[in-house]
């Protein structure tokens, strides 16, 4: 049996490991598809990749997918959404110290800094760039972060600090990055000292960019800004160059920036360019809103699909568990069958024993107490008729014979309950003992089942028999009450009482059992100076 469970456990663990490997392979396939995508579906595949990595408990790769999603959101103008996605990635990595986790964190903070700059939160921008530098261990990435930090410091007019930061980026081997860095360094120097001529660096940066065919608009923007207060025609020339390049590269953000410059530099055609700017700006805002909604929809749809898959897997797991449980049941069935046979044998022996106890109790109730009641009548009544005595004994005999045949007591169902109780109590009255009954009316017994009444009848008889044998009482009182569907019977005598240790001996053992059977309670008050008081109460139904 132990070996079987070990085999099942091994199969289960192997299945789990196999499942994890499959999920990682699926996640990697989605990630590669996202990187290679040219149709605008990268965000969708990165999201699928992220979910698969998390299902495989690979939080690092899941965080990398999240950062890529955040960068896509930033590129589409969803800056708040991008920051939120980056923060989600950061939470997955905050306790990790491996180099990959730190590089991903650095990239995430860089993205948050860029978003914050577009939202004009420059203090946060600087804080995020510093964190990106803190976590980065890649030299080229650090050069970029130093440059970006410098650009943010220029915006805050901290030109000296900006130069110090950008200076750390100049050793880069990447020519396009170098063009960006010297362009920003020249800006910082010129803003700090208006006498400084930034044109050599501006032109050098433009020349590099033109050769590469990339990022020329950054140079055109810097040159237009520089000539704005010196030569409006040159400033307008570079603004138009920026607009033409932006249109050629399909860059709406650069077009908006160029149109803003032209509006300020060409008052003659102000209205024409303003209308273009307004139309383009509306289009950009609509595109951004669509992008935000698209990102939210993709995440919702993927999450919904993920939940459906999880539900299906849970269903499959339930089925497998059911089959496994069935197998276990079949294996242990043999052992259960053997134990069941043994248990049935024990139960049968216990049933025989219980039947013996039940019959013994019935013999005590019907035969012993019945004979004692006849003896009491003979003793208490001077002129007790012999024929009546024989009838009483014959009745007891019939009852004892009924016990042997397990026949129900039909006669008791027919007799009037009130009269039976009164007759029973009266039969114990003699010259030495007076019996009194208070409240024994038909209403007391309404709604009480015959089985409950029989138990109560036997309890009263047991009390009377014990009174006769032990109490030496001269007066016995039974008081019957019915309150809120509860029947209360109070027994009082003026005899010698019963010592505490004797209460549940002999006949009174059955008394407690009977009262418990009808969900009632019995209270013995034997602390009085003389006599005994017993209170019995039980519910009607």
Automatic annotation (TrEMBL):
Q: Top enzyme class of this protein?
A: transferase
Superkingdom to which the source organism belongs: Bacteria
- The question of whether Transport is a record keyword is answered with no
The record's section on Gene3D superfamilies has: Histidine kinase-like ATPase, C-terminal domain (3.30.565.10), Tetratricopeptide repeat domain (1.25.40.10)
Cite the InterPro entries for this sequence: HATPase_C_sf, Sensor_HK_TwoCompSys, TPR-like_helical_dom_sf, TPR_rpt
**Record EC number:** 2.7.13.3
**What keyword terms does UniProt attach to this protein?**
Kinase, Membrane, Transferase, Transmembrane, Transmembrane helix, Two-component regulatory system
Tell me where the transmembrane regions lie. 321-337
One record GO biological process: phosphorelay signal transduction system
UniProt GO molecular function: protein histidine kinase activity
Catalytic reactions of this protein = ATP + protein L-histidine = ADP + protein N-phospho-L-histidine
Entries under PANTHER family matching the protein: NITRATE/NITRITE SENSOR PROTEIN NARX-RELATED (PTHR24421), NITRATE_NITRITE SENSOR PROTEIN NARQ (PTHR24421:SF10)
Protein name according to UniProt: histidine kinase
Q: List the source organism.
A: Chryseobacterium antibioticum
């Amino acid at each position: 049996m132990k070996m079987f469970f070990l085999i099942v456990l091994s199969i289960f663990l192997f299945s789990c490991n196999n499942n994890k490997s499959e999920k990682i392979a699926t996640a990697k396939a989605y990630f590669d598809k996202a990187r290679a995508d040219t149709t605008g579906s990268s965000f969708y595949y990165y999201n699928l990749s992220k979910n698969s990595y998390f299902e495989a408990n690979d939080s690092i790769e899941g965080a990398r997918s999240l950062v890529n999603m955040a960068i896509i959101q930033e590129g589409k103008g969803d800056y708040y959404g991008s920051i939120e996605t980056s923060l989600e990635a950061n939470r997955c990595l905050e306790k990790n110290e491996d180099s990959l986790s730190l590089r991903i964190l650095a990239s995430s903070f860089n993205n948050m800094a860029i978003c914050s700059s577009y939202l004009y939160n420059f203090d946060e921008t600087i804080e995020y760039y510093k964190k990106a530098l803190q976590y980065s261990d890649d030299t080229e990435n650090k050069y970029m972060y130093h440059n970006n930090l410098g650009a943010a410091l220029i915006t805050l007019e901290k030109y000296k600090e900006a130069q110090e930061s950008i200076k750390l980026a100049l050793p880069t081997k990447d020519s396009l990055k170098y063009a960006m860095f010297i362009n920003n360094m020249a800006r910082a120097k010129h803003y700090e000292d208006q006498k400084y001529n930034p044109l050599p660096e501006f032109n050098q940066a433009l020349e590099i960019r033109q050769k590469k065919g990339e990022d020329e608009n950054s140079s055109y923007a810097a040159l237009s800004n520089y000539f704005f207060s010196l030569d409006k025609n040159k400033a307008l020339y570079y603004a138009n160059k920026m607009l033409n390049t932006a249109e050629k590269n399909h860059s709406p953000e650069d077009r908006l920036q160029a149109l803003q410059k032209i509006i300020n530099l060409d008052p003659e055609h102000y209205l024409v360019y303003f209308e273009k700017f307004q139309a383009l700006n509306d289009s950009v805002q609509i595109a951004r809103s669509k992008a935000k909604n698209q990102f939210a929809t993709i995440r919702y749809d993927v999450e919904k699909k993920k939940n459906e898959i999880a539900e299906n897997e849970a269903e499959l797991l339930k089925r497998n568990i059911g089959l496994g449980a069935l197998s276990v049941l079949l294996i242990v069935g043999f052992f259960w069958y053997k134990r069941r046979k043994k248990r049935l044998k024990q139960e049968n022996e216990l049933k025989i024993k219980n039947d013996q106890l039940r019959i013994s109790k019935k013999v005590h109730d019907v035969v012993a107490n019945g004979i004692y009641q006849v003896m009491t009548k003979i003793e208490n009544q001077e002129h007790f008729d012999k024929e009546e005595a024989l009838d009483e004994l014959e009745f007891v005999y019939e009852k004892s014979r009924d016990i042997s045949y397990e026949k129900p007591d039909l006669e008791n169902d027919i007799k009037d309950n009130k009269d039976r109780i009164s007759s029973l109590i009266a039969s114990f009255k003699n010259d030495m003992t007076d019996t009194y009954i208070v409240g024994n009316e038909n209403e007391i017994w309404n709604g009480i089942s015959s089985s409950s009444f029989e138990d109560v009848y036997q309890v009263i008889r047991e009390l009377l028999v014990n009174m006769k044998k032990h109490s030496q009482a001269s007066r016995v009182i039974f008081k019957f009450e019915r309150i809120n569907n509860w029947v209360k019977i109070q027994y009082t005598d003026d005899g010698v009482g019963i010592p505490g240790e004797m209460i549940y001996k002999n006949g009174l053992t059955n008394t407690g059992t009977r009262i418990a059977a009808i969900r009632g309670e019995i209270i013995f008050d034997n602390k009085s100076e003389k006599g005994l008081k017993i209170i019995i109460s039980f519910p009607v139904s």
